[in-house]
Amino acid sequence: MSSFWSAWIIVLTLGLLIALIVLLRWNMKNYTDVEEGELMDHEFDGIVEINNPLPKWWTYLFWACFAWGFIYLALYPGLGNFPGLLGWKSSNQDVQSLAESKAAMKKAKEEGLIVQYDREMRAAEAKYGPIFEKYASQSIDELLNNEKALEVGQRLFLQNCSQCHGSNAMGGQGFPNLTDDDWLYGGSYETIKTTLRNGRQGQMPAWGEQFSDQQITALANYVASLSGRERDADLVAQGKKLFTVCAACHGQDGKGNQNIGSANLTDSIWLYGGSISTIKETLKYGRHGVMPAWKDILGEDKIHVVAAYIYSLSHDK
């Protein structure tokens, strides 16, 4: 925050508190000729106002609030760039990456700063770290038969993965369904762990500059025919000739290659949609889906449990 806006906030905050104190003091004094407890000069609908002072408990409560307000502003950050006498802050809000966050946490600990988020993270690690270490020592078969471990894995999934794959793990357009047995890179437990650990980056190239719109249409019709749909025979024949460039990744039979994450085009499962218009869009502009890497965020022990939960969604115990 710039020094101007910091000063602006300080002036407004302290000015408002002082103005409220002045207002309270003004209302505690009798500025009329009528003695306190006596009737005032004006009335309305037969009701006459009495010149009563402010209740003592009410004024005491206000003074206590003012005192607490000044104490709070002195101890904690809130007045512009003033850090507070305690050196407390909620988190390292100026960090822009995970590496910067870890460096800031280390620096704060070395300097004895009170960062609430850091304290909560350390407390959580001390409490839950041994639990995850215990789960990390178990095999996949043991985890699949450990209801508590799978519940923990589910909670981690909901916290970190559901934003893309949904709370039911059934995905959506552009995000894979994790409950079926269709996998771009493979559905073994170790492969799922590798995906979580290192992430994935889809590289379906765009063919809009290499092929004309008519060729894209023919190729889309041939791709649609691979999953058993009836399409125009002439377009399918033209598209089959063009499919040679696609076979390098998807195979001549269109069944894909899990080693590189190329989709199986012969089933009825489509990541971005299987309509002709959607297939044409995919061919023309390409797709570049990204699955983020979680090794630095969750760590190996948590990935071990999350992978077990995801594996359990499409495999019998």
Automatic annotation (TrEMBL):
Q: Where in the cell is it found?
A: Cell inner membrane
PROSITE patterns from the UniProt entry: CYTC
Cofactor(s) demanded: heme c
Q: Which residues form the Cytochrome c domain?
A: 148-227, 234-314
Q: Which SUPFAM superfamilies match?
A: Cytochrome c
Keyword Mitochondrion in the entry? The reply is no
Q: What is its main location?
A: membrane
Q: In which pathway does it act?
A: Energy metabolism; oxidative phosphorylation
A GO CC term?
Answer: plasma membrane
Q: Provide the residue positions that the database annotates as binding heme c 1.
A: 161, 164-165, 291
Subunit composition and interactions: Component of the cbb3-type cytochrome c oxidase.
The function of this protein is: C-type cytochrome. Part of the cbb3-type cytochrome c oxidase complex.
Its family remark reads: Belongs to the CcoP / FixP family.
* Name of this chain's protein: Cbb3-type cytochrome c oxidase subunit
Organism, scientific name = Idiomarina tyrosinivorans
